[in-house]
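quick one, 165 residues, struct below
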Amino acid sequence: MLRTLLLSLVLFVSATGFATELQPDRNEDAYYLPNGNLGLVSDRDGEAYDPVSAFPEGGGESVVGNSNITASHGNIVYHFANEQNRDLFLADPLKYEPTYGGWCAWAMSNEAYAPIHPPLVTIHGNRAHYFISRGAKRRFDRDLVDREQVADDYWKSESGEEPRL
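---
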């Protein structure tokens, strides 16, 4: 109930033009650091998930990473379930990083910010879209191509980054 209320508030705030408290300040890594310098952290359990595990070559299901198996990209530290996934990440970190820096893809497609729960993920090509709730994932997936374009445009306007392909 609380998560539904939070998402509704984020979307209302986005639709009405008010700034959200979740929106990061514009500084060097703020767009990737909703949880300090630890990447892919769940808003539900506080665990750091393995960014490779959601992809077919990493097992195809998001799993919690091991805090003893880590790698960094930029100033962000990721945890991995095993050394093989860490090595895959190090070979191509841009492929495995969350598409919108660890923020919910549905919220991003509504020009807003919301945290994520990494088991709720859609892999589209080489892109990992994470979500705050099953409903957010379902709505995004229903119109994936159009939602992805809107989210990409908003992410670029906020972060200055080109969309990942």
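The mean pLDDT is 83.
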